C-alpha cells in the first residue's frame, strides 16, 4: 500500500482537500482530530496532561484556552505537550495504517500538520503540501474566531515555513484561488493516483 502524507501550515486547506479525498473513497488519518480524541474525557492523553499541567484539566475536561495561553507565554509548554501527545498519536496512526492495509486499499492518506518537522514523511511514498498566500491564511484563521493572531503565530512559528515544505514536497496544491480551482487540481491528482501513475 502507498502512503500519501498531507501537510501545510494552519488554515492552508488540509481539512478541505482531505474531505475531497474521503469523497473519492480514500481512507484519511486526521492527526488533529486524533489529538482531540486523545484529549477527550475518556482519551488516553488526559491523565498524562493532568500530571504535567495540573491547571489545564478541570472536571475531567481539558481547558484548551488555558493551554493556548501558556503556550504563548512560554513556547517550551508546547514542546512538553507534544512529548505527551505525539507518541500516543503515533500509535493511533500505525493502527490506522495497518487497518487500511488489511482492507486492501491502494493508498492511505495521512493528514499531519507536523509531517516534515517530526520525520513522518519518512513513512510516506509521496508528500503533498497545501499552500496559500500568508495574507489569505491570516484572513481564514481570524474568520474562524477561535484564536487570536498572536496565538496562531505561536503554532505557525513552531512549524517549518510553508515555502520550505513546498520545496520538499512531491505535490503542491494551491488553495489561494477559488474552491473550484482547488477541486480541479485534486481531481487531476486523484485520477493519477487511481491509475497508478504516482
Ligand atoms: C494546544 C491545543 C490544546 C490547542 O487546542 P485547540 O483546539 O485550540 O487547537 P487545535 O488542536 O484545533 O489546533 C489549532 C492549530 O494549531 C496546529 N497545531 C496544534 N499543535 C501544534 C504543534 N504542536 N505545532 C504546530 N502546530 C500545531 C493545528 O494543526 C491547527 O492548525 C492543541 O493544539 C494541542 O494539544 N496541541 C499539541 C498536540 C500537537 O502537537 N498536535 C500537532 C498535530 S499532530
Ligand atoms: N480554494 C480553497 N481551497 C481550500 N480551502 C479554502 C479555499 N477557499 C477558502 N477555503 C477555506 O479555508 C479555510 C481553511 O481550510 P481548512 O480548515 O481546510 O485548513 P486546515 O489546513 O485544515 O487548517 P487547520 O490546520 O488550522 O485545521 C476553510 O474555511 C475553507 O473553506
UniProtKB/TrEMBL annotation:
Its main location: cytoplasm. This is Dephospho-CoA kinase. Pathway: Cofactor biosynthesis; coenzyme A biosynthesis; CoA from (R)-pantothenate: step 5/5. Its EC number is 2.7.1.24. It comes from the Bacteria. Belongs to the CoaE family. It is found in: Cytoplasm. One of its GO terms (molecular function) is dephospho-CoA kinase activity. The keyword Nucleotide-binding applies. Catalyzes the phosphorylation of the 3'-hydroxyl group of dephosphocoenzyme A to form coenzyme A. It catalyses: 3'-dephospho-CoA + ATP = ADP + CoA + H(+). InterPro entries: Depp_CoAkinase, P-loop_NTPase. The gene is coaE.
